[in-house]
User: Fold this.
Amino acid sequence: SILDSEYLGISTVSVINQMNPDVACVGNHELDYGISHSLLMEKLAKFPMINANIYVKYFNKRLFAPYYIKSFNGQNVLFIGLITREMAGQLLVDKNIGPLIEIHDPVEEVRKVIEEVKASGIPVYATYLLTHIGIGADIELAEKLDPSLGVCAILGGHSHTLTEEPAVVNGIPIVQAGWGTDYVGRFDVYID
Assistant:
């Protein structure tokens, strides 16, 4: 948009701060202006921005916090953020940073994060994937996930798909909420 071109996404972070989300995953537009700008926007955000599969190549270290745990009514909910190599295109073609970054397999990273959290001893009631990979890639991801991982749903983005009812693949509901400010997605979870 004209505003994003002028303010390089910082105005968008200000608006999202006002919406007060619990957590957000890193998508391709967070990488539009380079990694240093992405890290600046992460610092300006009043909400956690997560991604489990963008790594600094030679250190095997994740660039962002891979997950976020929030307690709802005394139950811990785990959110894991994911992107694909195709969605991180701007970052990877950056001649200064691109050679230092690698995108790891989303399926493997989900498994790793869940094992890390289990090893920490933090009890988790439910696990949700926040993805910015498109509905087709969300479906492929769900097909590949081992049901024993306990992923409850994939809350996705990027392909601008408006899902009025979840697609259910491998027992995992997959939803997206259109794009831009045309829609705001709502996914209600009831704990019994």
